Amino acid sequence: MERDDAGEPVGFPDEPEAHMAGPPPGEALDSSSKEVVPPEEAPLADVPSAGATAAAPSEASPETLADTSPEAPAGISSGTPSGTPGGKRESRTGRNLPLAIGVGAGLGSLVLLSLYTVKEIFLGVMVVFLFLGMRELTEALKSRDIRVPFIPVATGMVGTPVVAYVWGPTAAVAAVSLTVLALLMTRMTEGADGYVRDVAAGSLVAGYLVLMGGIVALLMRPDDGDHRIVIFIATTVASDIGGYFAGSFLGKHKMAPTISPKKTWEGVTGSAIACMAVGGWLVWWLLDGGQVWQGVLIGLAAVVTATAGDLVESMIKRDLGIKDMGTLLPGHGGVMDRLDSLVATAPVVWLLLELFLPS
Predict the structure, then answer these.
(1) Helix, strand, coil content of the chain in percent (nearest 5)
(2) Do the beta carbons of residue 331 and residue 106 sit within 8 Å?
(3) 326 in Cβ contact with 313 (< 8 Å)
(4) Is the distance from CB of 284 to CB of 291 less than 8 angstroms?
(5) Backbone angles phi, psi at 173, to 5 degrees
(6) Which pLDDT tens digit goes with each residue over 125-152?
(7) Which phi and psi (to 5°) does residue 37 adopt?
(8) C-alpha span between 357 and 30 (Å, rounded)
(9) What is the pLDDT of residues 159-183, one digit of tens each?
């Protein structure tokens, strides 16, 4: 999940520094007249999302993008008053924070309600969200003329979590393998041009989302799977919340400026403390035989994978020259902008819980 200007979660991820079409530095293009106007007259910066047709790559410098310093919220050009067109002020991270919190609370309520009524409902919810994320990613890849065979990947995205939940790890491995084989065969019908590029991207989607969906289903499969899912999600969310506050108030030292300039070591430290505290408490409280130290280790591992998940998606978006994977979730961006750290954390939490408390 994306972070604010201090390095923590925001609704708008850090802007790509290259591959963005735009006017020369210091100038903005007026959409009505198509003429170059001075910066002080520039309208809101137009930064593309995956849902729109991507512009051709150019050598535009970072200055052609919106000023995202604390004095100018993300997505607002210099000289433009902060806030939304409707008069509602945004946080300095460039998003409508109350709206983002409301959407997040709604998603959390949906997860808890489905988990603690009928677990299979959560399985369906998860498949829907992963399918939407897969759709966003494949559409984003089209901005670079990468055509992932949709039908085999979509089939695998729906089928893998289901067979993993019903029949276990062997079925999950078989489903992912068949998904990759199907996309290799399907793409042959379109000729050799771009074959390696397209099937490589399809294999990325299969490993990034299809396999991860199967692993989450395995995490939910035991009798106490509802508790295991809560530990997995709560620990990952704790990474975002702890990092947000630590990075906002203390963040000074950049962690990976060439990948995600807003992430700081202070933010990562806050994420680690929150993850270990939440992990230690929930493992001890929810799981029979669970020990605090086990949860602390799970939390420590989760902060590494959650941070890595953020950076991986940042790299993908920078390479594709897009700002968000989509716009489906108000205040957050696309579904993939919310799933990035979760899909990276799922296998580690599953492995550690199986090691400490076998199902």
Answers:
(1) 60, 5, 35
(2) no
(3) no
(4) yes
(5) -60, -45
(6) 999 999 999 999 999 999 999 999 999 9
(7) -120, 160
(8) 60
(9) 999 999 999 999 999 999 999 999 9
